[in-house]
Specification:
- Helices cover about 50% and strands about 5% of the residues.
- By secondary structure, the chain is mostly helical.
- The chain has a two-stranded antiparallel sheet.
- Strand 1 and strand 2 form a beta hairpin.
């Protein structure tokens, strides 16, 4: 087999893999659509009976970079006055340690219960 033949075969395999990945995404989207009605129905029926822990776990499926309790369209704290961050996650997200704890920090603490928040500036 020549180098050119290997390159040609490699391109064919990449194209085939890309098509398989596209087909997989379409099938997953179709499955999700099929199950959405059932999930929605069950959530509507039982959500009010879930414990706070169960509700928090369900909310973890919907990640957000927003701070808990922040109002939509409200002024950001940066506009009031800049406060130096006290903590910084390995992802680069920073927090002053004041106000409500950002969701990303709550998630980090849940994954690292035995550790304190990393001090700013974060050193890997």
């Amino acid at each position: 087999m020549t180098y050119a033949e290997i390159q040609k075969k490699e391109k064919e395999l990449r194209d085939a893999l890309q098509k398989l990945e596209q087909d997989k995404e379409k099938l997953l989207a179709a499955e999700a659509t099929k199950h959405f009605e059932d999930i929605h129905s069950k959530m509507s029926e039982f959500f009010q009976h879930f414990t706070a822990e169960q509700k928090a776990e369900l909310k973890s499926f919907f990640p957000s970079d927003k701070v808990r309790g922040a109002k939509k369209g409200g002024k950001q704290s940066q506009e009031k006055g800049s406060v130096q961050p006290k903590y910084e996650l390995p992802t680069g997200e920073k927090w002053s340690g004041r106000g409500r704890t950002p969701i990303s920090f709550l998630e980090w603490k849940k994954a690292n219960p035995d550790h304190e928040y990393p001090a700013y500036p974060h050193k890997a």
